[in-house]
């Protein structure tokens, strides 16, 4: 699967009604530039239409920010240009991230009937109001439930929601209730992340000033263990550390990232990857809308060394149920990397943090708690 992935397109829609306290993505709590932004996005798309070398596109992902702040007509305009400039698979997965407070019956009907969006990703985070206030979300729990019910009634079957665990206000019992509500809705996919306090975010500042309680690692571990137990009981497959799906409902776009596929990122701060180099766009809306060449768009480009490519493969593959394959390392890198990997992985096999299935190495439940540390220990330092 690693080698057969078709490329995807990511569209960064940087508008929000308000900034969530924990968010460190580039976004603006204003719609001031929305109209001119869509024109700029289409212009960038035209300038960079050759980046993926005419390969067929299998996924399109509207991320952000809050893509549901765009009108269905604007979304349709963007998809139509993708169809004109790229070879878009007729069965492409087209995902739109949405916040519950943006979704009305009229909006969802227009999205379903007037656009090619066929997958909805809803940023719920919690069904409890005090958790949502801690995170500085706009919606409340009732609105989240109403939005899910409307989307299902209108016919969105391929849906996913986000839930955050490890929130200081979220007790174990409330976390179990969040999962119970999720399962009751028969949604086929769940993305669930531990709350992380990123430096310089509003949440980081508030915790530093002792205005909000800090996260607790033991609580996050308990919540993660509950998450694994409950998803398995309900037939969900954990195909990536933070992602769970019923069979047939894996997120194709995000799997492209984890399995080393190529993707074109459009919009301010968006990243692109073609297998050999990574590049990212300017993080300034004013500069972005004034773009007139590729040089104006791309803030920086990094040609990856063999060491960097190996490290990235180890880091991303270990997070997945497909695991890290030494056959892939042997075929794609100097053979010294296989010997290095096999030597370094031994202690994690002995500690039951990793299991081996032929040439493939997969994290155990215990190992998933230490995923970043294990991957980092397997990295090769650049000369």
In a few lines, what is going on in this structure?
This protein has helices at 34-47, 72-85, 105-114, 129-135, 141-154, 172-184, 202-208, 217-233, 252-258, 285-289, 294-297, 306-318, 326-332, 336-350, 365-368, 371-378, and strands at residues 8-13, 57-64, 88-98, 119-125, 159-165, 189-194, 237-240, 243-245, 263-266, 271-273, 277-281, 298-303, 324-325, 354-357, 360-363. With 383 residues, the protein is α/β, with parallel strands linked by helices.
Structure description:
The structure is a single chain. The protein is of the alpha/beta class and 383 residues long. The chain folds into two domains: 8-258, Aldolase class I (TIM Barrel), CATH 3.20.20; 306-378, Orthogonal Bundle (Arc Repressor Mutant, subunit A). Helix content is 42%, strand content 21%. It has 16 helices and 15 strands. It has helices at 34-47, 72-85, 105-114, 129-135, 141-154, 172-184, 202-208, 217-233, 252-258, 285-289, 294-297, 306-318, 326-332, 336-350, 365-368, 371-378, and strands at 8-13, 57-64, 88-98, 119-125, 159-165, 189-194, 237-240, 243-245, 263-266, 271-273, 277-281, 298-303, 324-325, 354-357, 360-363. The chain has a nine-stranded mixed sheet with strand order 7-8-6-5-4-3-2-1-9, sandwiched between helices. Strands 10-11-12 form a three-stranded antiparallel sheet. Helix 2 links the parallel strand 2 and strand 3 (88-98). Helix 13 packs antiparallel against helix 14 (336-350). The two termini are 31 Å apart. The mean pLDDT is 93.
């Amino acid at each position: 699967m690693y080698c057969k992935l078709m490329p995807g397109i990511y569209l960064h829609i940087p508008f929000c009604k308000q900034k969530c306290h924990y968010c460190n993505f580039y976004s603006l709590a204003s719609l001031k530039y929305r109209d001119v932004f869509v024109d700029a996005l289409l212009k960038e798309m035209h300038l960079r239409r050759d980046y993926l070398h005419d390969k067929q596109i299998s996924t399109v992902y509207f991320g952000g920010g809050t893509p549901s702040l765009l009108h269905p007509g604007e979304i349709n305009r963007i998809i139509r240009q993708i169809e004109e400039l790229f070879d878009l698979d007729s069965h492409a997965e087209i995902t739109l991230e949405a916040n519950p407070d943006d979704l009305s019956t009229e909006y969802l009907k227009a999205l379903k009937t007037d656009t090619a969006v066929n997958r909805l990703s809803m940023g719920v985070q919690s069904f409890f109001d005090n958790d949502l206030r801690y995170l500085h979300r706009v919606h409340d729990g009732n609105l989240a439930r109403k939005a899910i019910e409307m989307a299902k009634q209108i016919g969105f079957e391929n849906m996913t929601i986000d839930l955050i665990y490890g929130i200081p206000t979220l007790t174990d019992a409330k976390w179990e209730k969040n999962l119970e509500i999720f399962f009751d809705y028969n949604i086929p996919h769940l993305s669930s992340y531990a709350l992380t306090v990123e430096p310089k975010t509003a949440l980081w500042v508030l915790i530093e000033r002792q205005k909000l309680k800090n996260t607790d690692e033991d609580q996050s571990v308990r919540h993660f263990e509950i998450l694994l137990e409950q998803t398995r009981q309900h037939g969900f497959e954990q195909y990536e550390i933070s992602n769970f799906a019923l069979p047939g409902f894996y997120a194709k776009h995000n799997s492209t990232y984890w399995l080393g596929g190529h993707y074109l990122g459009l919009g301010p701060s968006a990243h692109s990857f073609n297998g050999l180099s990574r590049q990212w766009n300017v993080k300034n809306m004013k500069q972005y809308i004034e773009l007139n060449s590729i040089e104006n768009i791309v803030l920086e480009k990094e040609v990856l060394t063999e060491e960097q490519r190996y490290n990235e493969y180890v880091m991303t593959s270990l997070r997945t149920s497909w695991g890290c394959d030494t056959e892939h390392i042997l075929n794609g890198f100097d053979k010294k990397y296989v010997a290095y990997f096999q030597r370094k992985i031994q202690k994690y096999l002995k500690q039951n943090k990793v299991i081996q299935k032929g040439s493939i190495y997969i994290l155990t439940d215990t190992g998933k708690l230490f995923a970043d540390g294990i991957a980092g220990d397997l990295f090769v330092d650049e000369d």
